Structures are given as structure tokens and as C-alpha cells.
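Entry for the shared binder. Reason: the reviewer on the internal report wants the predicted structure included alongside the sequence.
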Amino acid sequence: MTSRLTGTDAAIVATVTVLLLLCAGCARYAIPDSSAVQERCPQGIAVPALLNESRYHEQGPRIRDALIGELNRRPGLQYHGDSACELRCTLFDSSQQVTRRDAFGDSLSEDSQFRVYCELVKDGLIQIKSATVTFTDDTFVRVDARSRYENLAGSVVSNVTR
């Protein structure tokens, strides 16, 4: 006795087959984790000067220094100036707004926002990972720009190396 598929059963089998083929074909496009970045960049990661398109030109070197510090703090990652891997970043926009002042006009708290595009590139050609990070620092008391840049760097490195 032979069994034939009805129209509904055939549609289900066809749909499942197509889904399996799609999943198998897309499986090789997995996002690399930090161990994959470590394997591709065993000598470390270089951080060239940021391309700064914001109106605050002093922020480029500060963000670069924070990125280097963040790479050195992460286990398995390190900064190396002559590495084949580079973390190239562009600061598109930044804004800072004083939210509270004391009686003398000095700022007590600020809100700041950055929009940074970064890509991890090997040998100048092969893009390992890229990310656009929009970072908003919570309002903080007693303005501390260093921690602001460190928090931004942590967010960028997390997005690019995961």
C-alpha cells in the first residue's frame, strides 16, 4: 500500500526543507566571539588615530587612549602598535550638555552622547567585525571626563569583539 501526501502535508514538507537549507547555508555567517578575534589577531590590535567628524576635536585622542586602555584590560586582547589587526574608528557626532550648575556657575552634572563607527580590520583589507555604537553616558555628578571615555571605550570594544 502506498501513501501519498496531501496538499497540506506536501506544503509542510516543502517549507521544512527550505528552512533547513536556509539554516545550513547561513550557519557559516556566525558572529565571531572574542576567542575568534583572539585567533585572528594573536599579536594584538592596533588603534590608529580616530577620524573625528565632530566639532570637539580634542575628543579623538582621548577616545583613542581609552580604547588602548580598554584593550589592555580585556583578557586575551592587547594593544600592539604594529599589529596586522586595526581597530579603525570614526567619531561622527558628540554632544555634551550641562544639566546642573552650582552657585558659581561650575558644572555639577552633564549628559553626553557619542556616535562612533568602528571596524576591526586585518591586513588592511579583511573586515572581521564592524559596529556603530551610540553611547549615552548617564547624568553623573562631578564631571569626570576620563570615566566617560572609558565607558565609551568599553562599549565599543564589547561590540566589536563579541
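Summary line for the report: The radius of gyration is 23 Å.
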